[in-house]
What does this fold into?
Amino acid sequence: MAEFLHMGGYAFFVWTSYAVVLALMVWHYVVPIRRVRSVLRELSMLDDDDVVREASR
Amino acid sequence: MLVLGLYLGLVVAPPDYQMGDSYRIIFLHVPSAWLSMSSYLIMAVSAGIGLVWHLKVADLAARAIAPLGATFTFCALLTGSLWGKPTWGTYWVWDARLTSELVLLFLFFGYMALSAAIEDRRTAARASAVLALIGLINLPIIHFSVEWWNTLHQGSTVTRLGRPTMDTQMLIPLLIMFVAFNFYFAAVVLNRLRGELLVQERRTRWVRELARG
It folds into this structure.
């Protein structure tokens, strides 16, 4: 295990790469899903009158 | 699939005889670089479709791709740099491949900035589509940079005609990561597009019904 983490002396380079890339990928995956949810929640709170009002603005 | 690729790449594949374990960065670097270029191509093509046929969804798709493409370009540069330090002895050189990939990053930024800066959506889409199409010139430059100029970056090892010059135990995780990154890219773009479409079509009946559940 320690040897695996050590990466033959390249631990810093290998693990920084993996950490940054995977973190960015998780972030990019989560954000749009949350956005869809929040848009739907917002829209469901408006009733049809609000929509008509907004459209006529 | 991503997990399998990570496992095979990090644990199972043997160390390279010249580069030791540092080569394991390849499993992120190559798929990122591939996605950076292919996403630019898709973005420019769909922006072009929006430009020619005034298709709103095509513009939205291009805008949904841009930040993700920029991220993968950044990832390709970052992993390349972190790989370059132990193998080439430097984080960065102004080499043809690296510079043209950096230009690609700025093209993504330029596209995003331009389409966000113009208030009117139609004008924004048209202007940024023109920019995206002009930027297409950069793609062949990146691809052939390792052949046209004498660069520090090595030539292609995977897509070479005939037998790839890479061991199977390394090639398989790389291909798995490659496929996983492509699926990931498609999933995220579709999710981003879904959000954009819901906002844009918020006054239509189908969105209202979807929201009410």
Remarks:
- Chain B has one domain: 23-150+166-212.
- The radius of gyration of chain B is 19 Å.
- Chain B touches chain A at residues 6, 10-11, 15, 20-22, 24-25, 28-29, 32, 67-68, 71, 74-75, 78-79, 82-83, 85-86, 184, 187-188, 191-192, 194-195, 198-199, 202-203, 207-208, 210-213 (CB under 8 Å).
- Helices of chain B lie at 2-12, 26-53, 56-88, 96-117, 121-135, 138-148, 168-200, 205-212.
